[in-house]
Amino acid sequence: MLSVHQIERQFRARHFESLLRGVAPIGIDWPLPLQIRLGSQPVAAMALALKRVIELTYGPTALSRELTQAIIDQQNADGSFGDSGIRGPLGDPLATAAVIAALSALAHEHASAPHPEAAVALERALAALANFQADDGLFHCPADRTDDDRALGSIFILTLLAGDDDFRQAVRLADLMNWCDEHAGNLDREAAKLWRMACIDAPASLRPARLRLVA
C-alpha cells in the first residue's frame, strides 16, 4: 500500500498502472482481468488514489484538491468517466464506479469543506452508472468481451460501492444482488471472493441467507 508521498510521486510521474496496484481497496487482490481493464483507465487510478489519500489524511490537502480537479476535468458529457474503448458510447462503468467511490469519500470526509463542483460531478456519475445497468442487474459496456468479464466487473462495482447509500439509491441493487446470488455457483474463484466481500457491506435484507453476517 502506497504512502501519501508515494501516491503523489506516482501521480506526478503519470505511472498510473503502478499507482493503481498501490491503492487497491483493502482486502482486494486485483484479478488480472480487472488489472487490465482498470489499468487502461487513468482516471480510475486517480480516483482510487484520491480515495486512499482521503483515508490517510485529515481534511483537504493540496494533493487531494489536485486529484479532485484532475478527475472532474475528465468527466464525459453523459456524466460517466473513462473510455469505452470503441467509437460511440462514452465511458466505462468500472472507471465511473471508482470515481463515485472517491467523490463520495470526499463528500463525507471533507463535509466541513464542501466542494460544489465535485458534488455535481458525483450526482452526474451516479446517474451515468445507473444507465450502464442492464435488465438483468449487471453493468455492461463494450469493453466486456465475455459474460465472465461482465460478471467480474459488476461484482467489483458492488464490492466497491455496496456500502454507499447514494449508490444503493441510484441503481437497482436488489436486481444486482439477486443475479449474483442466483449465479454464485458458476462464478470463478476470484469473482466469488469479491461477491462474499460485497455481501459484508450490502444491506442485511438483501444478503443471501447463507452469507448473512451478524453486524
Overview of the structural elements:
This protein has 215 residues and is mostly helical. 59% of the residues lie in helices and 0% in strands. The chain has helices spanning 4-12, 16-22, 32-39, 42-56, 62-72, 93-109, 116-131, 147-161, 165-170, 173-182, 189-201. Helix 4 packs parallel to helix 6 (93-109) and helix 6 (93-109) packs antiparallel against helix 7 (116-131).
The ordered string of helix (H) and strand (E) elements is HHHHHHHHHHH
Overall radius of gyration: 16 Å
Helix vs. strand class: mainly alpha
Determine the strand fraction and express it as a percent band: under 5%
Supply the key terms.
globular; 0% strand; 59% helix; mainly alpha; 215 residues
Write the layout of secondary structure elements.
Blueprint: H1 4-12, H2 16-22, H3 32-39, H4 42-56, H5 62-72, H6 93-109, H7 116-131, H8 147-161, H9 165-170, H10 173-182, H11 189-201
Helix pairs in contact: 2-4, 4-5, 4-6, 6-7, 6-8, 8-11
